[in-house]
Amino acid sequence: MDLEPKDAPLRNVGISQPLMSYVLPFLFAISASHAASLSQEESHQKMVALLAEVRAQNLDENPYQGEGQLRQLEDQLQALTDAAPVQDRIRLHFRLGIAELFLGRERRAIDHLTAAKEMLTGQHSVPAQVVNEIHFRLGLAWLRLGETQNCVLNPSADHCILPIRPGGFHTLPEGSRQAIPYFQAVLDNTAAEERLHLSARWLLNIAYMTLGQYPEGVPPAHRIPPAAFESQAAFPHWVNVAPALGLDTFSLSGGAVADDFDGDGYLDFFVSTSDLAGQLRFFRNGGDGTFADRTDEANLNGLLGGLNLVQADYDNDGHLDLLVLRGAWFGEHGQHPNSLLRNAGDGTFFDATFAAGLGQDHYPTQTAAWADYDLDGDLDLYIGNETTDTFVAPGQLLQNQGDGTFADVAPAAGVDQYAHAKAVVWGDYDGDRWPDLYVSNLGQPNRLYHNQGDGTFADVAPTLGVVSPRASFPAWFWDFDNDGHLDLFVAAYSATIADIAAAHLGHSVSVEKARLYRGDGRGGFADVSQDLHLAQPTKPMGANFGDLDHDGFLDFYLGTGDTDYAELMPNVLYWNQAGQRFVDVTFASGLGHLQKGHGVVFADVDHDGDVDIFEQMGGAYRGDGFADVLYENPGFGHGWLAIEVVGVESNRSGIGTQLRVDVVEGGQRRSLYRWVGSGGSFGGNPLRQYVGLGSAERVAQLVVFWPKSGKEQVFNEVPSNAIIRITEGREQLEILALPAFKFAVEHPKRAERHLHK
Description:
The protein has about 750 residues and is α+β, with helices and mostly antiparallel strands. About 20% of the residues lie in helices and about 25% in strands. A hairpin with a 2-residue loop joins strand 32 (about 660-665) and strand 33. Residues about 5-35 and about 745-750 have low confidence and may be disordered.
């Protein structure tokens, strides 16, 4: 008996690539001509109308947010006759229970799953695995009810943070209490090595934690030892201050960017959600410990949806713009337009997508990255789209034409891959000045496109040994060991809570792991993942990096999870130990959030010299919303330097510019390296670069290398504990007078929880 029969997927009838290469330039010429005739306001209103249409058409059929499948199942159940096999009725109640749970209606889900369970009585032919699966899903539905009643509707700073502290215990215990017997039933009827057994064991321990009965209350045979929830090193505990600041937006999975969008020097927030009815939000930093929702004033009403955000000054006018990416994971239902939001410089934004010639192709995507790949002084854009069994979507290389429009040159450049792209990142890994492109593909080999400097690229990933992991997701270029060469991190997206449980029990886990490739600066890479202690199973989506303790070495944070409600796994914090190894300090830090982590941002939001972490939270299904978090850095007492660069001959944002900071510490000179960019592939750090100075007595020298011209600027005896600005070609640096402030303790209104019930 199959609880969820597999239906044969429908494939879209695609146009052949040769025909596409003939037709697309003609189509682009038509659309570009039309784009040029659109005013800024016309382009904006066209997008608002289109997104309203997408919302209306997709809310029903969308596989994650619609109710179409639910109604089909209800019709099938209603159509069953009394003579229908009981197995059919069990199957439909089971599937209806899952569908209701994903829509956020836990009580209805429990009713359907309970009906399926009760029909098992006397059914001797039902396989044991079906019985166990029904019990597991019943336990999960009850556990989810407890999450909703406590973590969502009555939240505290400790709710859903693993290991769960007293402040996170459920005051409404019904959900967890009812879940425990069902997980216990699964454990009693499965072997210890089975994946369902490990999953039930993990959730059983969490359920007891929420009741304040861990570890003593957990049956010894199924207890995960407390030592498994201890960090590998001491680390300060961080606190979520988002509710106090009104930044705890409640939504589904989405993106986040922190940067100075109004030119006052303070870091503002853009936050999006994949909810088709979800409004893009803009929060202005008041510079006094408060944030104000300026969505209306910024002309953003009606700009809905978006799983990821990427910022850049694409038109070199000195005002930071924003790209909104839509449609990811939805397959053929994800043919939603992206949005290019042009910053008018007066506190408002206009959707320039159609005016810029970017509105003709609607491919599902969540990943894109900016770079001046042709070194002509303006920023180009690569968008990694999602080709699936049912939909074909090529990658796009959008060359900036210098007049506010873009042209897709991917076929000619050799980067129009047909794959399920989940991350795209630029970096000059071989030091030849030309930005190279890495594409992380889910379920297919990853690509490293070497920029040949003539407008074309060659995939060298197989040659350089950087095609893995095969099931990959977020990625980034960085210099984790401060040797002046770009390294490459690529996360694996294949672990489940069964793997997480096995790892916490000390068992070997064969699931694919993340890869950290150390670059040699000459075009070679070596896999150092095992040597640097990155062999634990994780499943990240949102992720980013930054120097949390300001010792000069970059740490990173993984926002983990999956669409399945069962995948309650802690987000993970790795602490860099001077480039020699990474230590997991998740549990000590208080950053082991169990809810689904998406856009991750490292930013010194309060200008106190240490980097805080913002994370956009929430899952993909309609019932899986959660509130965003902002973890305040408690401070480590180290020196720091924040550097802004302004391109003149180069792109205005300075993206791709290399920084070398030479410090003297304990009488010894050492160098720290940064490349200007927004960090990882899922979450936008500020373009302002934060460099931890450790215990350095002074900053002896700052060297700025501009790839476009190949020129260096050198500044001696640079002030520390300051925010400075470097303008290309200008001999003097600026010190920005942006004093630190304390976060406001209280906020007049907590973000509302709009539950889809």
